[in-house]
Amino acid sequence: MGMYEWIHDRVQGKPMPVGGVVNSGERIIIEQGHDEAGAFYRVTTLQNNDWLRINTYYACGDSNETYEKGGNCR
Description:
Elements: H1 3-11, E1 18-21, E2 27-35, E3 38-46, E4 51-58, E5 63-69
Antiparallel strand pairs: 1-2, 2-3, 3-4, 4-5
């Protein structure tokens, strides 16, 4: 099972976006969308170092990861 399916199973039936806190205490938000590459889930993590890690998981199995400098919004 890929990450797209794993996320899909956990958020199915919940209104988007979905927010939460992971074991490390970092906050996440999960968004669902569609672009030229297809259907995706985007998981944005506010890391403890104030950077945003943005992971995008596509239904076809592709994924990517980018980083952006976040604000100090704790």
